[in-house]
Here is the input.
Amino acid sequence: MACRTSCKSGLGLLPRAASSSSLSSGTRVASPSSLLRSRRIAVATTPQQQIRGIHATLQCRQQQQTDKSSGGESSSSGGGLSWLTQRFKEAAGSTAQPYLVYRTTERLVKACASKADYKISSEERKAGTVKQTADGEEIGTGGGMWHDDFHLLPTFSTWAHVTMLHMYLLVVRLRALDKDAHHTWQSQLVDHFFHQAEDKMDVEHDMGSRTMRQRYLRDLFVQWRGLMLAYDEGLARGDAVLASAVWRNLFKARDDVDVRVLAAIVSWMRLSLMRLDQIKDEDLPLLAEGAFKWPAKSELLLVDLPARGLEGAETVKR
Here is the structure.
């Protein structure tokens, strides 16, 4: 159980003190191993510290008795994780909440942005051999499911729309929070994304003019708002409308798009939303990223299965 170490050592005050001071100063929280190594130095030496240590031990014992009376639900993986998260939030305090949101959203955006990442080498840039699309968009070097299996070019547009697709799914889940929390988390997500977008314009596309970057970012923000409206309409009106929104935004309404791929992406979006919905609010900072571990291409196996309404139907030859 999570509190077992504190109960045995009587030093439950150490993680709390380390978490509070580290988070309020904006530094990294001390690791459990470093706390254990410091036990010989950090033993409570004053009466106040001893009283705090005894109080923490009693709290842990009361928690253990509660777990036993409830059938050990908190000792399971889900319940124990929720309890740990709640303890962490209580230890961090209200002043650390903005930092917690900032760090968590930064990590989530980085995970979303890695799905269709690409690079443009400096050698190609210097030699002037960077490939371009018919619309003049530079093509980099990528890899992975979105580039190889779904045949999307490794461009800034592809990277942005795949990242925004993952962000949209997170935003839909965040709407279940209270109004203030939803606004804070979504604002931080969007801010981190546009910081990364501007950095990619500068590093990968050698766009040194800040004025030009800001102009492209304004256009990208308009696309983000339109994307949310289009996907919201698709979730409300059905899979056909959602597939149409994916086709227009992600695939730029190309004529050669495989409809199986569109169906797989729509199925994956529904699955990801279901998995996000199964995560408790207090566990979102730790578990939200795991909702995207199931690859969208795996949904092709489901798409290729015959529909129930067509089972047993004879194929009509014309």
Observations:
- The longest helix spans residues 210-237.
- Residues 4-92 form one domain.
- Strands lie at 131-132, 138-139.
- The chain has a mean pLDDT of 77.
